[in-house]
Amino acid sequence: MEPLDWIALRHEGVAFSVRQMDNITMTGPNKKKLHAARRALDEGMRRLGLTMKGNWQLYSTVFTRKAQRRRLTMTDRQRQLRRPRMVSAVGYRFGHTHTILRKRNFLRLTRQCRRVKKKLDNMIPVPFQQAAGLLSRIGQLKHCDSLNLRVKYVDPIKVKNLKEVVRYESKRRQLARERLYSGGAA
Known about the structure:
This protein is mainly α. It has helices at 4-7, 31-47, 65-72, 76-81, 103-121, 128-140, 147-154, 159-181; strands at 16-20, 23-27, 87-89, 92-94, 99-101. It contains 8 helices and 5 strands. It starts with a helix and ends in a 5-residue tail after the last helix.
């Protein structure tokens, strides 16, 4: 039996393929060949006793030359409505030229930034959980095109402040652990 990698991910017509846990994304220039690769993947999975989820999708991520020419005759509003779709996976949306956060992740990050900024402006200490959570979300920005987001929401907070909160709490917990293991009172 062939390994799953060879079933469809290296099939004719698949230019690129990415696997992330149970999510497989295949890209290619020809829809018919991509359908054939999807059928081959489905068949290979069946041989392994696996089934493909029923909500798989095949869609265009860039426009063909013919479609691009047609777009030139459209109004601005029509052009805005007819954009190529972006591949959505692993918390990001991947386009032909750029990568952005998913809307849900973007909203959570901005809301968290506003909450922390409000606390800092009112001289209220930021709790450890909140600082650690926001630092984690800010780490997502390294992997996408996020300069405007960083300038508007993250820079006013000053990541240094959040790191100090986390560092202080980590040291406090480490000292408490050492006292506990050395037989002293916690």
